[in-house]
Amino acid sequence: xxYHVYGRSHLFAALPRIIPLSIAQTPETFSRLRCIACGAxxxxxxxxxxxxxxxxxxxxxxxxxxxxxDAFKPAALDPAALKSLWLNRRTSRNALDQSGVWRFRELLxxxxxxxxxxxxxxxxxxxxxxxxxxxxxxxxxxxxxxGMNPTASFKDTGMTLAASAAHRDGFRxxxxxxxxxxxxxxxxxxxxxxxxxxxxxxxxxxxxxxxxQSLDYGALTCQLRTDFDGCVRILNDLVxxxxxCLLNSVNPYxxxxxxxxxxxxxxxxxxxxxxxIIVPGGNLGNSSALGKAxxxxxxxxxxxxxxxxxxxxxxxxxxxxxxxxxxxxxKLEPMTAETQATAIRIGNPASWKKALRVxxxxxxxxxxxxxxxxxxxxxxxxxxxxxxxxxxxxxxAGLKKLLQRGFVKPAExxxxxxxxxxxxxxDFTIKFHRGELFRGTQHENDAAQTMPLQRAPMVLDADLxxxxxxxxxxxxxxx
Length: 479
Ligand code: F0G
Hints:
The chain is of the alpha/beta class.
């Protein structure tokens, strides 16, 4: 048995008695696939996870929640019982119970435990952001930091489930197109599951930190001379020819795993929903996943009201913003994307229809933010002692705009979803603080507004006097 696998005997031996096992044992019929456009319910998905009838995306739904075997009717999913079951698992020494994803497995498609690949993902902190709250004039501002996952981005929560499903299905190879975080995560989980991984990334358009991760975790890494959208096109053709499992967020297992961040967030807030959740939008899988979780939690009466989920894009990579604002969500026009927040440099987001549904169901908004606004927000989150990668900082920048428009009110509770760790893209941070971020770009004129936040490193002689003088000059400036 591979080392990553937790066999049944080990699993149950480690479970404390307080956990009612009957809830945890879900049959494979519990979840079904459904096309988001034509409603077809195929028994299995094609290699590209698209509906064979109409070509749109498929998603999981759970017929057992409203019909099906008695054991899986809502009575078995009693909200109070689920909440205490999930809380009790936090004290379990079993690896699946310790995962912040598998801990919530009652709301996920069933995957036999012997195929589970886990790195202890999820369980990410919910921080208060006191300085950012002061800047924005909010009373209650939180950050759910998904960058505190094993490979330092939110991708791990979806990848643990999708990689496990690929393992169950007997794939030797998994593959993705990526702006860097999906590839890092996939490479790690594939290795843990003794599978090979193929990474397609846009050459020169992803951060070194992310590229180095996929190399270290053992992926076959191909830097293609194109952008992310070009990588997706090649990958879609490849999976039709070769027996590789596609692990981009069109894979519905990814969405299911990523749902757990919202469940965990609500648990951290004692099941009292915040007024707003704000999330960056790239390929739009994450907003779709978090929104799906909110809707399902309300359906199961785990929460009584829905937070508004708003999606923020970089101005240079804003196809979803334009779809909603210009076309009322009736169509999405792909674009050539350009932003230094490379994680969300995406012009043709696959999951835009799922995200639109979430926006409409929760009453959320969509916003766009400039490069200077992103850089400023990132430094402000950093100054709260938290830090995040540029794509995550669009949330704070977007929040400021939503406050200006009166969509968010100062007395409301807001949670920003920070999607990646500050160390994912140190180049951006260093260039920002040295005042070099916008040099030679079309945003050079905006650079001035970011200057007050810049803290360039000082190169000094190894001399006490020089260090004291530096200290005194900063003190004088601050007083
Ligand atoms: N934030 C970060 C740090 C990301 O890496 C991504 C997406 C997003 C936000 C946007 O999330 O695509 O679900 O809307 N990164 C993908 C990747 C595309 O390949 O790593 P989304």
